Amino acid sequence: MNERLLKARRVLAVQILFDRLADWRLRDLERQELALQESRRDLVRFLDGESAFTGIFAATVMRRMQSLEDLRVALIAEKEAQASLRLDERSRLRRAERIVDALDDHARRAEEARRLAEAVERSVNGKT
Prior knowledge:
2 helices, coiled coil
C-alpha cells in the first residue's frame, strides 16, 4: 500500500472523529434546549398555581424566566453555528471518503496491472 493511501486513511479516521464530535455537540445543545424549555414550563406552572406564594415570588420568577429566555436565545445561536459546523465536518468527511475510495481504486488497478504484467512476462518467458 502506498504512503499516499495510508495518509488518506489516517485523515479519514480523524475526520470521522471530528464528524462524531460535531454531532455529539449538536445533540448536547439540543438536550440543553429541552432542559431550558422544561424549566420554563415549570415556572409557568408555578405562576399558574393557586399557591399563596405565587404573588410573593412573581417578580423573582419573572426575572428567572427572562434569564432562561436569554439563555435560550444564546443557545439557539450556538446551535445554529454548531449545525453549520456539523455540515462542514460532514462535507469534509465525504471528501475524505471519496479520496480514500479513489486511492483504493487506483491501488487496486495498479496491483491488477502489475499482476497482468507478471502473467504476460511468465507467459512470454515460458514459451521461448
